[in-house]
C-alpha cells in the first residue's frame, strides 16, 4: 500500500452499483441449490444468475465478501485498472469474521464464485457502458490467490510489519461493467458499520435494496410480498412463510433506525410490504 493510501481516511460508506443492487444475486441461504436465479423487471427485462459448472450460487458469505470488496475498492481510491490487493487474514478481520482454516477456504471459494458466476441481462441491468443493451458479466474479472509457503510463514516473525496468521495474498480485479457504473455515479451508499451490525443475511440484503428506494427520493416504498421475495431473493413462496422469514430482519432494521416503520398488509387478495424510509442516516452520506 502506498503512503498516500495509508494516509487516506477510512471510507465510512460503501459505494455500490445501483443497477446491481436492484437485482437478485446472492441466495440468502447457503444451500447447494444450483438452479439459476431468474427475475423479470417491471419493464420486461430478464435477469439470470448462472452458477459455474459444479459450483453453487453465491450465498450469504459471498454477499459479505462482495460488500467488503467494494469497500476496499473505494478506500483504495477506485484504481483505474480495478485491481485490489489484500491478505486473506486482513480481509476476514475487516468483515468481522474469525480468521482460521475454514474461513480462509470459504473466502477463496467466494472469490472464485464471484469470478465464475455469470450475470446475464436482457434489458434488465442498466449499464453506463451500454444502457439496457443485452450483456453478461461477472462481479470479478480476475482472481489470484498466492498461498505462502510453509518456509515463508516460519520467517514471518522476523518482520514486524507482517502477521504470522496471514496464509496468503490475493489480487482481484473488479469487473469493468461495475466500475463504469461506479465512475458514472450510478450508485447507492451504505454504511459498513451499520451493514455488519445486522446479524441476519436477509436484513443485510433488505438494507441494500431499501437504499435503492431511498436513492430514488422515496420516503416510503410499497412492494408486493411475492415480488419482494423474488427480488431479494427468497426461496419461500407462501405468504405466511415469507412473513416468518422477514419478521426478524424487519425488527433488526427498525432497531437500527434504518427504517421508521414496516407493515405487511393484504390488499385485494395480494399481500404487500410498506416501508416508511425517512431520510438517510448521516454516516451514509
Describe the structure.
InterPro entries: Replication_initiator_prot_A. It comes from Gemmatimonas aurantiaca. This protein has 285 residues and is an alpha+beta fold. It folds into two domains: 186 residues, no CATH class; 87 residues, 2-Layer Sandwich (Ribosomal Protein S8, Chain: A, domain 1), CATH 3.30.1370. It has eleven helices and twelve strands. A hairpin with a 5-residue loop joins strand 2 and strand 3. The longest helix is centred in the C-terminal third of the chain and has 17 residues.
In short:
InterPro entries: Replication_initiator_prot_A. By secondary structure, the chain is α+β, with helices and mostly antiparallel strands.
Quickly give the structural class. alpha+beta
What overall geometry do the principal axes of the alpha carbons give? globular
Summarize the main sheet.
4 strands, antiparallel
Q: How big a fraction of the residues is strand?
A: 15-25%
Task: Give the strand order, joined by hyphens, for the main sheet.
Answer: 2-3-5-6
Radius of gyration: 19 Å
Distance between the termini: 26 Å
Order of helices and strands: HEHEEHEHHEEEHEHEHHEHHEE
What number of domains? 2
Q: Portion of residues in helices? A: 25-40%
Helix count from the secondary structure assignment = 11
Compute the average pLDDT. 88
Pfam families: RPA
InterPro entries: Replication_initiator_prot_A
Protein name: Replication initiator protein A
Amino acid at each position: 500500500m502506498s503512503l498516500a493510501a495509508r494516509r487516506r481516511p477510512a471510507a465510512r460508506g460503501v459505494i455500490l452499483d445501483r443497477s446491481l443492487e436492484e437485482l437478485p444475486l446472492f441466495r440468502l441461504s447457503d444451500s447447494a441449490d444450483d438452479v439459476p436465479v431468474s427475475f423479470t423487471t417491471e419493464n420486461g427485462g430478464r435477469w439470470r444468475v448462472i452458477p459455474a459448472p459444479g459450483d453453487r450460487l453465491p450465498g450469504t458469505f459471498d454477499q459479505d465478501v462482495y460488500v467488503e470488496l467494494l469497500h476496499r475498492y473505494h478506500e483504495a481510491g477506485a484504481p483505474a485498472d480495478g485491481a485490489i490487493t489484500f491478505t486473506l487474514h486482513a480481509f476476514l478481520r475487516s468483515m468481522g469474521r474469525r480468521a482460521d482454516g475454514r474461513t480462509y477456504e470459504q473466502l477463496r471459494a467466494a472469490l472464485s464464485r464471484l469470478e465464475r458466476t455469470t450475470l446475464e441481462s436482457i434489458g434488465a441491468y442498466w449499464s453506463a457502458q451500454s444502457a439496457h443493451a443485452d450483456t453478461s458479466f461477472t462481479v470479478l474479472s480476475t482472481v489470484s490467490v498466492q498461498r505462502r509457503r510453509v518456509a515463508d510463514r516460519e520467517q514471518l516473525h522476523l518482520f514486524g510489519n507482517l502477521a504470522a496468521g496471514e496464509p496468503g495474498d490475493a489480487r482481484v480485479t473488479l469487473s469493468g461493467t461495475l466500475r463504469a457504473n461506479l465512475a458514472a455515479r450510478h450508485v447507492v451508499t451504505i454504511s459498513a458499520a451499520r451493514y455488519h451490525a445486522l446479524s441476519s443475511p436477509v436484513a443485510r440484503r433488505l438494507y441494500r435494496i431499501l437504499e435503492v428506494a431511498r436513492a430514488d427520493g422515496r420516503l416510503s416504498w410499497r412492494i408486493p410480498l411475492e415480488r419482494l421475495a423474488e427480488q431479494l431473493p427468497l426461496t419461500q413462496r407462501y405468504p405466511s412463510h415469507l412473513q416468518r422469514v422477514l419478521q426478524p430482519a424487519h425488527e433488526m432494521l427498525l432497531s437500527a433506525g434504518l427504517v421508521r416503520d414496516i407493515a405487511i398488509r393484504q390488499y385485494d387478495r395480494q399481500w404487500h410490504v410498506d416501508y416508511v424510509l425517512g431520510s438517510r442516516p448521516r454516516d451514509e452520506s
